[in-house]
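Handout, section B. The chain below has 245 residues.
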Amino acid sequence: MTSGENGQPEGSGRPEEGAQPGYGQQPPPPAYGQPAYGQQPPSAYGQQPPPAYGQPPAGGYGQQQPPAGGYGQYQYGQPMHGGDAPPPAPYTQPRARMGVGVAGLALAIAGGVLGVIAFTAVDWFKGDRPSHFHDVHNVLKALHAQHLDTAISKLYFDWLGWAVLAAAVIIAILANLPSPASAGLRVLGALIGLAGIGLTFWAIEFAHGVAYSEFLKHARLGFYLTLGAFLLTTIASLLGPRKTS
């Protein structure tokens, strides 16, 4: 017998290393750990094996394969936003709550008490006889018959003074209660209080033919308490409700 190349005898059934098996012959058994002839190597656990040679990938050419678990699915241990952390929630300041303005309520009530005392219990002018609020009203009635009174004084010592005082106290109280209208009531209460101060200064001159300085010179406690009452309601309105966290 003659020997072939590499010292192999002719007619031996073992093909050369790297050579393709002949027609009708079985391929040699693969080495340990190597894939068999014509088979794809096993893919890693959980991964898609690569396509065979000449075969299109799954889904066709030019198409992107969906990620494992599908689009928009929350994978274990991974966020939904493409591997990035989700955007932080916008920071919001805690809304301040409104409470009852205790200081404003106290000032409003004190102003109302001073006004009632000024309109009922003390004198308004220095003289030999009483000059309470009602006494001045009676004097103005006599002057009105002679057309010597001032129009604003007659109204003030008749009903206007009481009406403005009541409005100033009520609005100041409401302005210190927590409500959506508290901002507008604060402005309105302050305006009414300032108007009461102005009307009191105006109405003190209750007769024509006398200098205004003479009325101020003879003014007594009733006049000053009324000014203090309207000043307190003005401050009370401006304070308004207190803010709590």
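Note. The chain has six helices and two strands. Compare this with the example in section A.
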